[in-house]
From TrEMBL:
Transmembrane segments: none annotated. The gene is dinB. It catalyses: DNA(n) + a 2'-deoxyribonucleoside 5'-triphosphate = DNA(n+1) + diphosphate. This is DNA polymerase IV. Mg(2+) binds at residues 13, 107.
């Protein structure tokens, strides 16, 4: 990227956000291994405190596995309203510095501060101030990554967690990437990293040895992205109108559901949860997905796509129940049900729709 077009991107990632809110609000949990979500017998960990992570406890891990790894693990129920309140406070801090904010979740966002509301020359100084204000207003810590593109800023925010601030300057990007193992690259998951390892691609430097056509041949459309990030290239702007790819909700039940009546009763609040999000955000989807996890942990999914976005709650509910009824009679107990919507669009879209600065 030409010197005159260098962006100033900050990636803010709250540290163990859900668990940190719980520890902040309940002094008895501070300094102890905490898992948000699930229970010792059932469910999935939504978030883990750093004390729990030392034992290998991670989000999306089975609660039973987490309890085995950390016998003293304390399970707490999620309090999403509290997390949303804290997230709102954090975004208010962001808005004091820039209008170019791309939220990724309640606890994570990109900020473009190339031209900022404070007129500050240094993105690093902005990131430091943002971290300090978040700590002052929420008593929570954040990690920040500063760089000239989104890919590097996200890598940087994870580099010195927790409560970190790491900067990758324009003349450092390629060197930083070439020394990094590919499994640490944002956008390269475990399956892809394993495939790369089998091809003797272990680091960014290894990945850089291959041209775009080779990578596209072996990794499809993602090949172009891999070609660019191996060279620390990422032209994506901070997108203030970013729409989620999907929205969903699921529930792990305290006991296995056995009958059709139990299944339909269990699915209803999940349907309502998804629809409340759609109404609140005015984001609607065309594809309804049903997820079923049986008591033996077998997972099956069913989906249906409509010609236009589903804007009627009754129609959405009917499709969800139709997908469930396709599975009758249920062959074994069900421990989890989930509903999600994809092919999303904003309601308004349904009828159609720099200078180099000091780091």
């Amino acid at each position: 990227m030409p010197e005159t077009n260098i962006r100033k991107i900050i990636h803010i990632d709250m540290d163990a956000f859900y668990a940190s809110v719980e520890q902040r609000d309940n002094p008895a949990l501070r300094g102890k291994p905490v898992a948000v979500g699930g229970s010792r017998e059932r469910g999935v960990v939504a978030a883990a405190s750093y004390e729990a992570r030392k034992f290998g406890v991670r989000s999306a891990m089975s609660s039973m596995v987490a309890a085995r790894k950390c016998p003293n693990l304390i399970f707490v129920k999620p309090r999403f309203e509290s997390y949303k309140v804290a997230s709102k406070q954090i975004r208010e801090v962001f808005a004091e510095y820039t209008h170019l904010i791309e939220p990724l979740s309640l606890d994570e966002a990109y900020l473009d501060v190339t031209e900022n509301l404070k007129g500050m020359a240094s993105a690093t100084a902005i990131a430091k101030e943002i971290k300090e204000k978040i700590k002052e207003r929420t008593q929570l810590t954040a990690s920040a990554g500063v760089s000239y593109n989104k890919f590097l800023a996200k890598l940087a925010s994870d580099y010195q967690k927790p409560d970190g601030l790491f900067v990758i300057k324009p003349n450092q990007g390629e060197k930083f990437v070439e020394d990094l193992e590919v499994y640490r690259f944002h956008g390269i998951g475990k399956v892809t990293a394993d495939k790369m390892n089998k091809m003797n691609i272990f680091t960014g430097l290894d990945l850089r040895q291959y041209d775009e056509s080779f990578l596209t041949k072996h990794f499809g459309k993602a090949g172009k992205y891999y070609y660019n990030i191996a060279r620390a290239i990422d032209y994506r702007p901070v997108n203030t109108e970013r729409i989620r790819k999907s929205v969903g909700s699921e529930n792990t039940f305290w006991r296995d559901l056995e009958t059709n009546v139990e299944l339909e009763a269990g699915l209803k609040p999940i349907i309502e949860d998804v629809w409340k999000y759609c109404e609140r955000t005015q984001v609607y989807g065309r594809t309804v997905h049903l997820k079923v996890k049986f008591k033996d942990f077998q997972i099956i999914t069913r989906s249906r796509t409509t010609l236009s976005p589903i804007v009627d709650s009754t129609f959405f509910e009917k499709i969800a129940y139709d997908l469930l009824e396709q599975l009758y009679p249920i062959p074994k107990g069900v421990r989890l049900l989930g509903i999600s919507l994809s092919n999303l669009a904003l309601g308004d879209d349904m009828v159609g729709k720099q200078l180099s600065l000091e780091f």
